[in-house]
Design goal:
By secondary structure, this protein is of the alpha/beta class. The protein has 18 helices and 26 strands. The protein has three domains: 171 residues, Rossmann fold, CATH 3.40.50.2000; 133 residues, Sandwich (Jelly Rolls); 170 residues, Rossmann fold (3-Layer(aba) Sandwich). Helices cover 37% and strands 25% of the residues. Helix 9 links the parallel strand 19 and strand 20. The protein is globular and about 75 Å long.
């Protein structure tokens, strides 16, 4: 069997979940006698200055290399000039901003409380507080009893003005300046529901920021009866849609399918790394192989591999590793690629079912894989890790992941603030700094990227592992925590994580800051519970999620796809 795996960057020294997955899967297949060729670019490292732009750095030489039984072909890529990348990013940001208004999200069904609707950018830290920038127009919905005032603290670094409308009636005007001020507005009479619309006179796109910014909001509060109620900035309509998967996916698919086709190409170019020599190799040489696999979603290499395989008449496979709840992953040309592939691998039964039911893919679950040899032979230095970072006498909660807003590390920080009101505990965060927003030392010990030994030592040192990402393809880091017999905490409405963690047996699934804090306190107070959950997680990992198990599954699916193609 001769197979070709297409990806954007490839190497055993690359840090990245998707990249490591393909590396290990390819090695497993090669160890089973499969002739595996990898075709990739010379890219190695990258950084993301914006949500849309990925700038890669060359880290490998172009040409052929043989490593761990794999034949690796690397091709040069086009380094996108910053001015062109800016054009791509601005165009995509404008399109996504417009889509929120052109295709309104499903209505929010909350009985009481406040929620941010359209017109709000991601929550982000600013010093010790969290803030959100608005677009030119921003909406708020509040439900309760006898609500008679709404207010917010806001600033705007440039001259601006705005109006506030409550239930369609103008409630007043305001003039923000460069310092936070509190502005309050009243409806004509107390109401049980307020629909607030903030309309700014203008927006501005600061240097190196692709967004059209209206004003910065630091807090929102409303008054009902004798009470003043804070509206947390993380209460955004997107979080209310996570439990309602069918409505969420329906909305995201509507947007993706209606999006003008040129934006598909803009997105692929902004993501990069685009390589015409790699593309030429795929289309010219695909016919020399029995099967071609396109890796990762959303990257152009996945679709290009499927198209080349179809044209050559060989079996095609897709390995998407998609974060399904994130609008960033929803593009019509990727739906079409999965539907066209003879075989699609998923990492969870959850994503398998979505791929099948919604996009017509022939999807099968592989699962995530841990390197069993590593955990059986590695030296773990949890005590030395604690001593190095001054954590000898304090409970430790560990987060490992990219420091980016989709990982919802801010929710974990808020939960730890609640925990620390009852008992001392320390949050340790490890992972690349993608959003470049500072972490206050009082909130967490942020270590940035660590080498593999540092990560293993941290897993050994921690009492609890917690990662509350809203969207994952699998959640490999949970299985690694289990291999050190640690209890884990994940986000209940992340579909892949909820299908991985058995709530109450090997960890907890939580849906709010308060729930996370309660479970952390419960685990810290009961060492026997921590031990029992960690052991259950280890047994699950050994039974389902080793690379030996996954390699055998993948080979069987490859054989079946090739056999069906030859009939």
């Amino acid at each position: 069997m001769k197979v070709l795996h297409i990806t954007y960057r490839f190497g055993g020294d690359i840090i990245g979940g998707a990249e490591n997955y393909l590396w290990n899967l390819s090695r497993q297949l090669a160890s089973r006698g499969v002739d595996v060729t990898i075709a990739a670019t010379t890219a190695r490292d990258f950084h993301l200055p914006t949500r849309w732009n990925v700038f890669y750095k060359e880290g490998y030489k172009a040409g052929e290399e043989v490593s761990d039984g794999l034949r690796i072909l690397r091709f040069p890529f086009f380094a996108t000039p910053k001015w062109l990348a800016g054009f791509y990013g601005r165009s995509l940001q404008r399109q996504f901003d417009a889509e929120e208004w052109t295709y309104p999200p499903p209505p929010v069904q909350s009985e009481s409380g406040g929620i941010l609707l359209r017109g709000w950018y991601f929550e982000e830290p600013a010093g010790r507080q969290s803030i959100r920038w608005t677009q030119k127009t921003a909406e708020i919905l509040i439900r309760g009893e006898h609500i008679w005032e709404i207010g917010f603290s806001a600033l705007c670094p440039w001259k601006n003005s705005g109006e506030v409308f409550i239930n369609g009636e103008k409630a007043g005007e305001f003039l923000p300046n460069s310092k936070f001020q509190y502005f309050a507005f009243k409806p004509l009479s107390p109401q049980n529901e307020l629909f607030i619309q903030i309309r700014l006179k203008k927006t501005k796109r600061p240097w190196r920021d692709l967004r059209s910014l209206g004003m910065m909001v630091g807090s929102i509060a409303y008054k009902q009866g004798d009470d003043s109620v804070d509206l947390p900035l993380h209460q955004h309509y997107s979080s209310y849609l996570y439990p309602r998967k069918n409505e969420l996916f329906g909305w995201l698919e509507t947007r993706a399918k209606a999006r003008p086709v040129p934006y598909n190409a803009l997105f692929d170019k902004a993501r990069g790394p685009v390589s015409k020599p790699l593309m030429k190799y795929i289309y010219d040489r695909a016919g020399e192989y029995d099967l071609i696999l396109g890796h990762d979603f959303p990257n152009w290499t996945l679709g290009a591999a499927i198209m080349a395989g179809k044209r050559a008449g060989i079996a095609t496979a897709a390995l998407p590793l998609a974060h399904l709840e994130d609008d960033y992953y929803h593009w019509r040309h990727y739906y079409e690629a999965l539907a066209a592939a003879d075989l699609t691998f998923s990492l969870s039964d959850y994503s398998r079912d979505v791929f099948r039911a919604r996009w017509g893919a022939n999807a099968h679950t592989l699962g995530g894989g841990i390197n069993l040899d590593e955990f059986q032979t590695a030296q773990f230095h949890g005590g030395a890790f604690r001593k190095k970072h001054g954590l000898e006498n304090i409970p430790m909660v560990l987060f490992i992941g990219r420091k980016s807003y989709p990982k919802r590390y801010d929710s974990l920080i808020r939960a730890m603030r609640i925990v620390n009101q009852s008992r001392p505990a320390r949050l340790v965060m490890i992972g690349p700094d993608e959003n470049r927003q500072p972490i206050e030392p009082a909130d967490a010990l942020y270590l940035g990227s660590e080498n593999r030994q540092g990560i293993l030592d941290a897993l050994d040192a921690c009492d609890i592992f917690a990662m509350l990402s809203g969207s994952e393809s699998f959640g490999m880091v949970f299985t690694e925590a289990w291999m050190r017999r640690k209890p884990v905490i994940g986000y209940r409405y992340c579909g892949a994580v909820a299908s991985l963690i058995t709530d109450g047996e090997d960890g907890y699934l939580c849906d709010s800051d308060e729930d996370v804090a309660r479970r952390i306190l419960e685990l810290l107070d009961h060492p026997d519970l921590r031990q029992r959950m960690g052991a259950a997680g280890e047994q699950k990992t050994l039974a389902r999620y080793t690379w030996d198990i996954i390699g055998a599954k993948a080979l069987a699916h490859y054989q079946e796809a090739i056999a069906q193609k030859s009939q």
